């Protein structure tokens, strides 16, 4: 492997993916479901989009005590990114979201639906690409400047999740949205209310277990 096989500041403990990776348990029917392009799947990853480390982004360690991800890392724009532009695909382990396989990924912070109807999701916790470093906007800025969007990957001929710059005017003032994402700015999305609700439940459950253990 060459010196550019992984991006700068990549975690050595996490395999870097430059294409989709399927868990062995994913059924043939589930794989085939990802190769069906519905008419409303208009966003695409074009055939000439390069694989490997993405020149549009940089992984940068965060050392700001006020940042929710302080001590970890975030994904930043390496150049100006236009409104609505594709930034990069979200790669991880494509797996079944049905029991018992769903239990393995239930507590992952990197798991996204890929095709909910087919029971397929993608988890970048233990393998992925730069997109796994995208943080939530809460506690960093007033609004997100990017979003996860389901799209069609022309290169592999299947559905994919990817990170896009928010279009001008979407969840942001028109004047700000028209600017896209400036070079050096952190790329931030909304993880969604469901994500945070689930994390609150897990926290309450953990606290309850700790109290019970103390009382015992």
Automatic annotation (TrEMBL):
<feature type="domain" description="SET">
    <location>
        <begin position="55"/>
        <end position="192"/>
    </location>
</feature>
<dbReference type="Pfam" id="PF00856">
    <property type="entry name" value="SET"/>
</dbReference>
<protein>
    <recommendedName>
        <fullName>SET domain-containing protein</fullName>
    </recommendedName>
</protein>
<dbReference type="InterPro" id="IPR046341">
    <property type="entry name" value="SET_dom_sf"/>
</dbReference>
<dbReference type="InterPro" id="IPR001214">
    <property type="entry name" value="SET_dom"/>
</dbReference>
